[in-house]
Design a protein that fits this description.
Blueprint (H helix, E strand, L loop, with lengths): L3 E9 L5 E10 L4 E5 L6 H8 L7 E6 L2 E2 L5 H7 E4 L12 H11 L4 H14 L15 H13 L5 E5 L7 H18 L2 E6 L11 E6 L2 E6 L1 H5 L2 H6 L6 H11 L11 H13 L1
Parallel strand pairs: 3-8, 3-9, 6-7, 7-8
Antiparallel strand pairs: 1-2, 1-4, 4-5, 9-10
The protein binds adenosine-5'-diphosphate (ADP).
Length: 276
C-alpha cells in the first residue's frame, strides 16, 4: 500500500480549465518526490488534492490506501501537511508561537504537548527565539520557515510543499533544501515538493515527475528525467545550468562519463577529467 496515490485524476475548474488530465501518481513512504513543471502546469492544483482541499472532477486520491471522504478528512489532514506557496495564505495568528500552535491545538493535543511541538518545530526551522514576534513583521524567508514549522508541529507523515524556495534569497533557499533533506534523513518523512527550479531539484529529489499542461509526461530519477530532452523541452523547462555547461564541453570533444546535474557531481567529473 502506498502512502499517497492519485488514480486517473482529472480536475476541471468552474471556468472550464482542465488543470489536471488523467494523472496517475504514486508516492512511496520516505521518498522525496518533486513535481516539476512550468507555470500553469497544474502543480498547485495537484497538491491541493493531496489533503482534500480540492475534490477530483473524476478519478481518485488515496491516502494510505483509502480514498478521501468527509469521514476521514481530519485523519487525512493529520497525515498530509500542506505548506502553501505564499506564507501569507497560511499565517494569521498575532504571534509566531500562536501561529505554530494553531495546528497541533486543533488536533486536540494537551497544552504541554503543543508547547513542546512548537518549540521543536521552531528549532528545526531555525526560528527558535522568534516565538513572540509578529509574523507579518518577519522577512519572507522567515515567514516561510514559520509556515513550515506550523505544519511540522502537526507531525505529518507526508509533507507537501508548494514552491518552497520561490522568492527566497540564496541563504533561504539553502536552508529550505537542507531542511527537506534533514526531515527525510532524520525522521523518514515522505516529502512532495512542487517546483519549477531545474537547478535546485537534483539537490533533493529522489524522483522527479514532470507535469505539463495538466498531464504527467514522464518521471524517474533526476538523471533519467534530465536525459529526456524532448520531455524537458515539451514541458517548457531546461537542463540544469551545470548540465548545460558539460553538454557544451561534450560538443567541444571533451569525453564525459556522465552529465553532472549538481555542483558536487560537476566537481567529481572535473577531477576525474583533470586526473586522466
Ligand atoms: P502551477 O501550480 O503549475 O503553476 P496551477 O495548478 O496553479 O499550476 O494552474 C493550472 C491551470 O489551472 C492554469 O491554467 C491556471 O490558470 C488554472 N487555474 C488555477 N487556479 C484556477 C482557478 N481558481 N480558476 C480557474 N483556473 C485556475
Amino acid at each position: 500500500m502506498h502512502i499517497l496515490e492519485a488514480r486517473n485524476l482529472t480536475y476541471v475548474y468552474h471556468n472550464g480549465t482542465r488543470a489536471l488530465d488523467d494523472v496517475d501518481f504514486i508516492v512511496k513512504r520516505s521518498e522525496i518526490v518533486a513535481i516539476l513543471g512550468a507555470n500553469g502546469a497544474g502543480k498547485t492544483t495537484l497538491l491541493k488534492h493531496f489533503n482534500g482541499i480540492l475534490k477530483p472532477t473524476s478519478g481518485t486520491v488515496l491516502v494510505k490506501g483509502e480514498s478521501i471522504t468527509k469521514k476521514n478528512i481530519l485523519d487525512v489532514r493529520k497525515t498530509v501537511g500542506l505548506v502553501f506557496q505564499d506564507p501569507d495564505d497560511q499565517i494569521f495568528a498575532p504571534t509566531v508561537r500562536q501561529d505554530v500552535a494553531f495546528g497541533p491545538m486543533n488536533l486536540g493535543l494537551s497544552k504541554d504537548v503543543v508547547e513542546h511541538r512548537v518549540k521543536e518545530s521552531l528549532e528545526l526551522v531555525g526560528m527558535a527565539g522568534y516565538e513572540d514576534k509578529v509574523p507579518h513583521h518577519l522577512s519572507s524567508g522567515q515567514k516561510k520557515r514559520v509556515a513550515i514549522a506550523g505544519i511540522l508541529a502537526m507531525e505529518p507523515q507526508v509533507m507537501v510543499l508548494d514552491e518552497p524556495t520561490a522568492n527566497l534569497d540564496p541563504n533561504g533557499i539553502a536552508m529550505v533544501v537542507q531542511l527537506i533533506r534533514r526531515l527525510n534523513d532524520d525522521f523518514g518523512m515522505t516529502i512532495i515538493v512542487a517546483t519549477q527550479d531545474v537547478d535546485e531539484v537534483p539537490l533533493f529529489a529522489d524522483r522527479i515527475v514532470i507535469l505539463s499542461k495538466g498531464r504527467m509526461i514522464t518521471q524517474g530519477t533526476p538523471r533519467e528525467v534530465f536525459s529526456q530532452r524532448d520531455a524537458i523541452e515539451k514541458a517548457g523547462l531546461r537542463l540544469p545550468l551545470i548540465a548545460q555547461l558539460f553538454e557544451s564541453l561534450k560538443e567541444e570533444g571533451v569525453s564525459l562519463n556522465t552529465t553532472p546535474l549538481t555542483l558536487g557531481e560537476a566537481k567529481q567529473e572535473l577531477l576525474r577529467i583533470l586526473r586522466a
